[in-house]
Amino acid sequence: MGTVWLAHDELLDRHVAVKALLLPESLTAAEREEALQRATREAMAAAQLRHPNIITVHDVLTHNGLPTIVMEMLKGRDLKDAVAAEGPWAPARAAALGLRVLDALSAAHAHGIQHRDVKPANVFLTDDGRVVLTDFGIARLEDQATITESGLLVGSPGYIAPERLRGERGGPASDLWSLGATLYSAVEGQAPYTGTSPMAVLRDALTRPPRPPERAGRLGPVLMHLLAREPYQRPDARLAAHLLRQVAEGGQGGQATAPLSSPLSGPQKGGGRGPVLVGAGLVAAVAAVAATVALLPRSAPTTPHPTTTARPLVATTVTAVPAQTPSATPSATATAARFTVPVDVCALMTPAQVRSLVPKASPKGETEGEGCAWTAHGNGVGVVPVEPVPLESAWGRSVDEATEKFVNKLNGAESGEAVQWNWPDIGLEKRIVQERKAYEEVNGIGDEAFSYELLNSKGQVERHDVIFRLSNVVMQIRYVDVKKVGDNEAMRKGARDAARWVAAALGRQG
């Protein structure tokens, strides 16, 4: 949106940066006028803020009919260039930077100002150790009328919150989403959404969850919490600061925040694109694509409510990242649900299929709540519809509600949360605590599926789980065979075979 020049303020005898606005030649007269007014709002917004992590605006001038903004001169480089040159950052270092950017955003939000373009290129690292949030070029004052006559959406692909892509006004939570995307880029070396074109990136941000981070470590669940699809699912600034501080301090209270100069992991080329002006027609086209795909809200897993089932199929307790209570917001993209009444889960596998998994079990299975289990001593397969929170029937929900439940389960598997479980019906009376390992997305089971393993202290697989979604129902398959402990492939095959058979039988009924 502009070119920055080095200049000298002769009156005050200081070096300054002067940003001269540049406009694409393809803009219409209305779009050009809106862009000019936006630049003026940048100066108005930023000039109100005095904070060590926000760039200082000294003045706004008019040159050749265009706004020209005079700002403090910063020496250093932005986060985008730093990651491209040095490689992805260590999670603690990224979390420490995130705390400073969050502090700047909180100060702006307290003045009723949204940044609306938080991205690595707008986070500047000065040579003297400051972290400075720059470029309030598309900031908006909450009490100022929005200029939307041309239908433009301005921002950077991969860093625009989904609600803004849907044409909503957005708010502080939108800036927190962009902060999450920025920190994701710092530790992964690329934005959570990338593609061959801005259109592809915008489409994916509207319709798909972000790629699970691979390098983020303990920062990973925090990033996925910030990148939740709906604003109400994200942490507020206070909770976000708490979560980032835990990562920056290595989980040890009272330790100093990890310095920004801490060692880096191996090099990886950074990614990213410049800002784009998205016309109303393009946004509508992307929205039309989104309307045919269930939105996947990404949030950190919520703490389960106590179950009231008399005898749960497998008793489980999960330690989860705190999440805010969602409010009831009907989805405009909801599709028709296939399942409106409970299905007899015990009829979803044939006797021959049951015998291949649990040879000594009764082929009829045993109903437990809304699920079913086929068990023998040391061996069992359980199939249970995943219930919503608060507890109610797992059948008859909307597709969006089921999708949210599926993604919350996915987040838990990605984070490697500890699971406490037992299964008395196969002889495992004592509750044990194990971590989820080997998370993997699985193709060809329902509409979407993933699997994970629970390992014993020797690193052997003791249980393999598959969770899949088919339309508006989420199913969990748990498979145990003590005779196959250590044979990871056999355990994986048993669980996935069961999941495929159940999904196929459900597909014939729905």
UniProtKB/TrEMBL annotation:
It is an enzyme of class 2 (transferase). InterPro entries: Kinase-like_dom_sf, Prot_kinase_dom, Ser/Thr_kinase_AS. This is non-specific serine/threonine protein kinase. It comes from the Bacteria. Residues 1-245 form the Protein kinase domain. Gene3D superfamilies: Phosphorylase Kinase, domain 1, Transferase(Phosphotransferase) domain 1. Pfam families: Pkinase. The keyword ATP-binding applies. Its EC number is 2.7.11.1. PANTHER family: MITOGEN-ACTIVATED PROTEIN KINASE KINASE KINASE 20-RELATED, SERINE_THREONINE-PROTEIN KINASE NEKL-3. Residues 250-272 are annotated as: Disordered. One of its GO terms (molecular function) is ATP binding. Keywords: ATP-binding, Kinase, Nucleotide-binding, Serine/threonine-protein kinase, Transferase. The keyword Transferase applies.
